[in-house]
Amino acid sequence: MTTERALDVDVEPLSPQELTKLATLAIEAKASAYCPYSNFRVGACVLLSTGTYHTGSNVEVASTPVGICAERCAIAPIVASMKRPAMPTLRAIAVSTDINPPASPCGMCRQFINEFATTKHLPIYMYGKDGLQGEVVKMTIGELLPMSFGPNDMDRNR
C-alpha cells in the first residue's frame, strides 16, 4: 500500500541564490549531453529538500527510444540510491535547452516527475538558449500534467 501524498501542499519558495544555482547547474549540465543524432542538448538540475542538487543530461543512442532525457537522468539515480521506504522530496527542477522559447519536459518526463513529486505545485523552471539572461518559463508539474495519473490513483477502489 502506498502512502497518500498531500498533493495540494505549497512548496517553499526558492531564494534568489538557490534559483541561480539551480539554473546554472542545469545550463552547465547541457555540456555533458550525448546527442550525436539530434544535436538537441538538454540539461536538468533537481533540488531536493535536503538542499542537495543533482544534475543530468540527455543521452541518445542509435536506437532512439532507448535514450534517456535529462530530467529522468537526474532523478533516477536519486531514487535508486535510497533505501525503501525512504523517498526523495523534490523541491524544484530546472531544465535548459539551446532553443527559444525554452522547451518543456516531454510527456514521459512529466509523468516521471509526477511520480516523485510530493505536491502538484512542484516548480519547474525552463531556460532557453540565452540561459540566465533570456526568457524563463516557470510552471508547476500540476500545470504541465493536469489530471495526472500517479501513485495515489493506484490504491483507489481496492
From TrEMBL:
Cofactor names: Zn(2+)
- So where's the catalytic machinery, residue-wise? 71
Keywords tagged on the record: Hydrolase, Metal-binding, Zinc
Q: What is the protein named?
A: Cytidine deaminase
* GO annotation, cellular component aspect: cytosol
- Report the sequence similarity comment from the record: Belongs to the cytidine and deoxycytidylate deaminase family.
Taxonomic lineage of the native organism = Eukaryota, Fungi, Dikarya, Ascomycota, Pezizomycotina
Query: Catalytic activity, per the record?
Result: 2'-deoxycytidine + H2O + H(+) = 2'-deoxyuridine + NH4(+); cytidine + H2O + H(+) = uridine + NH4(+)
Alphabetically, the GO molecular function entries are: cytidine deaminase activity; identical protein binding; zinc ion binding
The job of this chain, per UniProt, is described as: This enzyme scavenges exogenous and endogenous cytidine and 2'-deoxycytidine for UMP synthesis.
The domain of life is Eukaryota
Matches recorded under Pfam families: dCMP_cyt_deam_1
Species in which this protein is naturally found: Capronia epimyces CBS 606.96
